Structures are given as C-alpha cells and as structure tokens.
Amino acid sequence: MYSYEMTNRYFAQIADGMEELGRDELSALGAQDVKEAFRGLYFSADKQTLYRINYLTRLCTRVLAPLITFDCHSTKYLYKTASSIDWPALFDLNQTFCISANVANSKITHSQYAGLCLKDAIVDCFRDRFGKRPDVQRIEPDIQFNLHINNNLATIYFDTSGGSLHRRGYRRQAMEAPMQESLAAAIIRLTLWDGQNPLYDPMCGSGTLLCEAAMLYCRIPAGYLRRNYGFTHLPDFELNLWQSVKREADAHMRNLPPGLIAGSDINPQALAMARDNAGNLPGGRGVRMSKKRFQDLPALENTTIVCNPPYGKRIGRQDDLGLLMKEFGDFLKQRCKGSQAFVYFGKRELIKSVGLRTTWKKSLKNGPLDGRLVKYELY
C-alpha cells in the first residue's frame, strides 16, 4: 500500500499569504486535522473528500498524495528506493509523465539532478518489465509526480490534481502579467461579498476578478471546466463516487441576477478578452462590461469595488502610475459613498499615492510578485 492509503493524509499547495483562508476552505470541504506548513497545508480526507476538494477548492493549487517517505542521503539510495515502487500500477506505457523536484538542507543539493534520478528509476522499472519506457512530457503530461527532500527526508508524491488547479479553463486569453485565478478568488473571499450589493471592477483587464466573483456567487465549482484530474489514475479510484461528488456540487449552481456583477476598462482588447473569458462560464454573459475610464464612471455608491490597477509595462512611467492612483483615490473619495473598495497593488509603494486611509492591508502573492490587498471604507 502507498503511504496515502495507510494514513489518508495529503498535502495541498497554496500561495504564501493564503494559508489561513485555505485552512478554512479545506475544513469547510470536509478535510480533517488541517495543519499549516511551508507553502501548503497537510490534511486528512477520505476518497470522497479528496475528490470534492480537487473539484471545489478555489484557493489551493495542487493536492499531493504521498506514495512513500524515506531517509535519503544520496542519489544512489534515492534511485534504489524509488525503484522499489510499482510504477506500472500507477500509469501505463502509453501515458506521459513529468517530475517536479525541490531539495533543501540535504546532502542531495541539486533539485534537477534529484528529479533526474527519480525519472531514471521510473523508466528503468518499465524498461525492465516491458522492454520499453513511457515518455516524459513537461507540458500537459498525463501523470505528474513531485519529489520533496528536506533535511535528508524524501517524499515522493502523486499529483492528484493533474496540474495546477488555478487554471480553471475559462481564461483562454489574457493581457500581460494576468492575475492568477486562485489569487483573484482569495481577494473576492476577503471582501466578504455575499451578493447583497453590486460588485464592480473599474479596471477589469481580462476579467479574472469578475469571473471569480461570478463563480463564487453562482456556486460554479472551480473545476467545472476541467476535463482531467490526476486522482482518476490512482489504483483505488472509484468512478461512481467521483461522479456522485460532481453531481452533488453541480446541483448547487444558480443563476446570476442582471447587473449584480459588472466592470469596465479603457482597453478594448482587454474588454474583448474579458467578455470572452466570462462567456465561457455558465451564465457568464450576464457579467456586464463597458469601455470607460474610471474617471468617467457614474457614482458607485453602496457597492463592493474590487480591482487590480495596472502597473509596470501595463501603464508606463512611475510618475504616470502615481498620478493614476491619485486620480483613483479622488474618484473613490468623491463618488463612491457608502462603498467598500478592495485594491490589489502589485507595487506596494503605490498605496501612498491613493491618498486615502486604509482599513487594513494583507500580503498576497501573485506568482513571484509580493503584492498587497488594501481595503478602504468610503463614508
């Protein structure tokens, strides 16, 4: 038996700054004994809960199932131990696979070489048994494995998600430096927006925040458009149980009321992308979008305002960014009475340019970018 079968214990990867949100989400989805760890969360779950988490999590990016954990002080021992695993029980010759590896504080110091040793053990196992080997495919492989070695303790994981869960499937087009879907979902969650008042994005870009808001309100499962999951290749996979989990989640979906979610942008290309992306979601064409500068918008009173202002190459010089943020602060102050604004700053130094007192600031990462989500109460 593999380690996950004996312990029902898994590891969910999540971006820095989202651990507390992720813990609450996993618990709500049925996970037990959720513990925060470096870059993720350990939790216990039965098969039904594992399937549900993969299908419904909006915040976690991967769910990994440990196959084996062992002391590992050399690549020779890594190869020997990995060779003892029955790899053909996990996937077939005609399926592709890939390996990601990370190493820290160990005698094995090179992550790429550690991953290569694991790859060799896998293909040699197939070659010894069948006379040929499966292919490695780095882009959209059928099966994915993760090797983690820390303090000379190695764990080989099976990726039950089958690729990053932040790729929902609706965003087929995007502008430069798009916001990750899981970050947008975290921002919407932190607004505490429940659909009782309108939500508006005055700098919507390719529409990721609007799409995540629509998915949340309409209860569209985060994985609704995904076609493949790694857990379907596990030897103990139960098709009927997975179909039951999916049917139950899909049954809770609801329609989007007209005008509840809307946005605007000055870039016609971005708007076309945003409309196309939203249109890929059930009911997503109900998200209203228009070509407008925020300076020309009518008053947004008693509204939840959420946005990711442009930064870097998206706008130009630093002084232009500061002026834009000052104008945006004036807009919020003068025309958004009774509203709350949640603004994600990819450049933290721009926060002071807004000229408004913040209610709170939270650190949230967008890939390598260490940004800040700021809340403004507009009285």
Provide structural commentary.
About 2% of the residues have low confidence. Helix 4 packs parallel to helix 5. The strands form two sheets. Strands 2-3-1-4-7-6-5 form a seven-stranded mixed β-sheet. It has 379 residues and is an alpha/beta fold. The longest helix has 20 residues. It has eleven helices and 14 strands. A hairpin with a 2-residue loop joins strand 13 and strand 14. The relative contact order is 0.12.
What count of helical segments does DSSP give? 11
Strand-pairing-aware structural class: alpha/beta
Low-confidence stretches: 313-318
Termini Cα gap: 60 Å
Number of strands: 14
Give the rounded overall mean pLDDT: 94
Tell me the major beta sheet. Answer: 7 strands, mixed
SSE string:
HEHEEHEHEHEEHEHHEHEEHEHEE
Reading side by side through the largest sheet, how are the strands ordered?
2-3-1-4-7-6-5
Given the C-alpha coordinates, what overall shape results?
elongated
Helical residues, percent: 25-40%
From the alpha carbons, calculate the radius of gyration and give it in angstroms.
23 Å
Q: Give the strand content.
A: 15-25%
Label this structure with key terms.
single chain, 379 residues, alpha/beta, seven-stranded mixed beta sheet, 11 helices, 23% strand
Describe the secondary-structure layout.
Blueprint: H1 3-7, E1 9-13, H2 19-28, E2 32-37, E3 40-44, H3 47-56, E4 62-71, H4 75-83, E5 97-104, H5 111-130, E6 143-150, E7 153-159, H6 181-191, E8 199-201, H7 208-217, H8 239-250, E9 261-265, H9 268-279, E10 288-291, E11 304-307, H10 318-335, E12 339-345, H11 351-354, E13 360-366, E14 369-378
Parallel strand pairs: 5-6, 8-9, 8-11, 9-10, 11-12
Antiparallel strand pairs: 1-3, 1-4, 2-3, 4-7, 6-7, 12-14, 13-14
